Amino acid sequence: MSKLVRGHRDKVQQFMTITGSSEKLALQALKSCDWHLEGAFDVFYSQPQVKSYADTRLVEELYKRYKGKCYNSVGFCSSHPLLKSLYPYVDMILADGITLLCNDLQVDPQDVVMLVLSWHMKAATMCEFSKQEFIGGLQALGIDSLEKFRDRMQFMRSELKDDQKFREIYIFAFGWAKEKGQKSLALDTAIGMWQLLFAEKQWPLVDHWCQFLQKVTDSVAKHQLIHSCMNFDSLCQRSEVKPELLRHRHMLALPQPQAKARHNKAISRDTWSQLLEFARMVDPTLSNYDAEGAWPYLIDEFVEYLNENGIIRKGQLNDWSQKY
User: 5, 35, 190, 254: least surrounded by Cβ within 10 Å?
Assistant: First the structure.
């Protein structure tokens, strides 16, 4: 690389930093695109990556380092057949093991790269890796040591810059982050995931979107409380029952109002998926927003919220509008 002019050297270094590739691959990609970085990225991500060999025995050793352990009062270890039947989760990597893994990798457990790692492992649930998920994921990544693991983290982080991979990771995140047995994603969890993901793929409206959802839920809860209290007082008057005799208002089966946005503090899979399409297709100033488009009602009401609160004015996004 010493023979290259400074501009080319800088591009090679930048390419290697973003993609986690070798100098040889960086040179090949850049030269094939006449030293245009964007074109080189397209070439790099469109090609199947060569995976290095991972020693299965060493991968197994890594798994044993992080998997959960359980001992009973007699001293049987989790490998005992009886304990395996009683504690089905001991042969998995759980929260403590993931914390240890993050310490070894020198990354924060809330770093978005851990989501990318979970995507590679096809993990079914947040903060858990089954033996099959962990070993299969590391073999696919060509990792069989902590040194290789650390080296691959930069590559995994760079995958978020590829539009197609980002979309796959985004869609994966919904099922990964939701509670077991639930069809929807809890609002607080969804907001945290959006802030994490859109910190990588900049979407200027993400903070406004999260504020909108919180305001909608707070408004619905307030209306429901007022409506319940009004119905309660009316019921007492009609039945000539003193209010103090009915201390537990929550026991009354009172009808609830139909709020403008029937939001129940949970995000559906459709809303989750469509928001990414909205962020990708609709300009932040809403200049190309189609009111007749088939967007989920929550997104349509978000657009109304932006306009009604002066966040979008004359086709411009107002920076000062964060106060809303």
Answer: 5
Comparing 138-152, 210-224, 291-305, which segment has the lowest mean pLDDT?
Answer: 210-224
Cα torsion 313, 314, 316, 320 to 10°: value is -30
Q: How confident is the model at residue 218 (pLDDT cuts 50, 70, 90)?
A: low
Do the strands 129-130 and 92-93 form a parallel or antiparallel pair, or are they unpaired?
A: antiparallel
Residue 235: exposed, middle, or buried by beta-carbon count in 10 A (0-12, 13-18, 19+)?
A: middle
CA distance from start to end of the chain? 51
Collapse the DSSP code of 73 into the 3-class scheme (helix H, G, I; strand E, B; otherwise coil) and give the result: coil
Q: Token pair 């946005």 is at which residue?
A: 261
What 3-state DSSP class applies to 129? Answer: strand
Distance, CA of 17 to CA of 14 (rounded, Å): 5
Residue 44 above 80 pLDDT?
no
Reported as a single tens digit per residue, the pLDDT across 62-106 is 999 999 855 444 444 545 555 555 555 578 999 999 999 999 999
Q: What length is written for the chain? A: 324
| Paired tokens of 76 | 């049987």
pLDDT band at residue 264 under the 50/70/90 scheme: low
**Spatial distance between the Cα atoms of 11 and 23, rounded to a whole number of angstroms:** 11
Angle at alpha carbon of residue 159, lines to 154 and 162, rounded to 5°: 145
Is there a contact between 67 and 92 (Cβ–Cβ < 8 Å)? yes
- What token pair was written down for 160? 């978020």
Separation CA 105–CA 19 (nearest Å): 18
Rounded distance between C-alpha atoms, residue 320 and residue 324, angstroms: 9
DSSP type of residue 86: H
Phi, psi of 103 (to 5 degrees): -60, -45
Torsion 96-101-106-111 (CA) sign: negative
219 has a pLDDT exceeding 60: no
- CA-to-CA distance for 241 and 248, rounded, in angstroms? 14
